[in-house]
Every structure is written in structure tokens, then in C-alpha cells.
Design a protein that fits this description.
The protein is of the alpha+beta class. It has one domain: Alpha-Beta Complex (Outer Surface Protein A, domain 3). The protein is about 35% helix and about 30% strand.
Length: about 90
């Protein structure tokens, strides 16, 4: 099990993975050598911000600005930790 991601960590999509819109799936997907993950809209919005230039705190702030009525911090942290454990994202 990996260490939980802290809020001052900078995260990016793993170099072995590619995040893209897939018209055939009508959704964003995460492609990797062993396959593909079809992402739900929430996961897609979070991963759009994992570009290697923002801390987890900045990602949460950006998402709060985008969705001001949502209480999303805990869900974002949970998703980022799960994505990190699965190797979808890496810390910079």
C-alpha cells in the first residue's frame, strides 16, 4: 500500500498512462499498456487538473471554484489516493 497523498504534493498522470476523450465510449478514458479505464465525469474533472503543475490543495481549490455548491474535498482526496494506489497518477 502506498502512502496517502498529502495536500502539498504535486500530482500528474503517470507517464505510462494517457488521459483522453474517447468518442466511442462517449467519455474520458485513461489508457495504459494493460488496458483502459472508462472514467465518470467526476473522475475526469479531477484528472484534468493533474498536470504536474498544481498541488493537491490547488486542485481542490480549482474544483471548488468550478463547482462552488459542492462539498468535494473529501471525495477528491479519496479519488486521488485511489488513483495513486492504482498507479494512475504520480507525485512530482
Amino acid at each position: 500500500m502506498t502512502e496517502p497523498i498529502c495536500k502539498d504534493a504535486v500530482v500528474r498522470i503517470a507517464p505510462t498512462h494517457r488521459f483522453q476523450w474517447e468518442p466511442a465510449q462517449n467519455a474520458h478514458v485513461l489508457l495504459y499498456p494493460e488496458g483502459m479505464v472508462k472514467l465518470n465525469p467526476s473522475a475526469s474533472e479531477i484528472l484534468k487538473h493533474c498536470d504536474g503543475s498544481r498541488t493537491v490543495s490547488q486542485i481542490i481549490a480549482d474544483l471548488k471554484a468550478q463547482f462552488p455548491d459542492a462539498d468535494l474535498e473529501a471525495e477528491v482526496m479519496q479519488f486521488l489516493n485511489t488513483a495513486h494506489e492504482r498507479g494512475w497518477i504520480k507525485t512530482v
